[in-house]
Design brief:
The protein is of the alpha+beta class. It is 34% helix and 23% strand. The protein has a six-stranded antiparallel β-sheet, covered by helices on one side. A three-stranded antiparallel β-sheet has the order 7-6-9, with no helix packed on it. 28% of the residues are buried. It holds the Pfam family Cupin_7.
Length: 217
């Protein structure tokens, strides 16, 4: 069961088409896995359509309506999630649209980072973000780090834990410069994630910082 979801602002920008491509890839991939966020998006789009047609609607009206709808969804009062075909998840670690990005890049091409970890940069036309797949070996941590910008991490397989919580398939973690953490893959299974950043990570270890340009992290 997915416990960590996209925040409302991210869904609002995705719905409005104002997210950069890198963020949108991760958001759409999460939507493929998360019925709650698909329902939130569908209802948000309906609300947006209504207020676009209403000349008298103000910003406070939009905010209040969205908060009310979100509360209704979280209370379990939605009987049926509206399916969105373009986000339908297949029984695959890499659901659409991520799978198509991987295929356009020539398939999975892992680059070793050391100690069993690996990454693959996902090419996009967006020069404001970096999208990468990360593979963290079971039971192993990544180096402790903070962030010079924002980072969205979506778990695709396995799970990891850090100072915030435990994140499993479909869960999203948003991080910024206020968070210093050291994610560790859970024992028994490698953790595969998609991570989107808009600035380099800020590693605590001087040695890792020295290697950072060579490893592309």
């Amino acid at each position: 069961m997915i416990e960590h979801h996209l925040d409302d602002d991210m869904l609002l920008h995705y719905s409005a088409g104002t997210l950069a491509e890198g963020w949108s890839v991760a958001v759409a991939t999460h939507l493929a896995l998360c019925p709650l966020c698909r329902a939130s998006l569908a209802m948000l789009e309906n609300v947006g359509g209504y207020f676009l047609e209403s000349e008298d609607a103000g910003e406070d009206d939009v905010t209040a309506s969205w908060q009310s709808l979100r509360a209704t969804i979280e209370a379990g009062e939605i009987e049926k999630v509206v399916p969105i075909k373009k986000h339908t998840a297949a029984n695959n670690i890499y659901p659409e649209p991520l799978r198509s990005y991987i295929e356009r890049a020539g398939g999975l091409r892992w680059r070793r980072l050391g100690r069993g970890a690996a990454q693959m940069i996902i090419p996009t036309d967006d020069n404001t973000t970096t999208v990468r797949l990360l593979k963290i070996p079971a039971g192993q941590p990544v180096p402790e780090h903070s962030h010079d910008g924002s980072e969205l991490t979506l778990v695709l397989d396995g799970s990891f834990s850090d100072e915030v919580s435990t994140f499993a398939r479909g869960d999203v973690e948003m991080a910024d410069g206020d968070l210093m953490h050291q994610p560790r893959a859970s024992a028994g299974k490698d953790c595969i994630c998609i991570a989107v950043t808009d600035a380099p990570l800020r590693f605590k270890s001087r040695f890792v910082r020295w290697l950072q340009p060579l490893l592309g992290i």
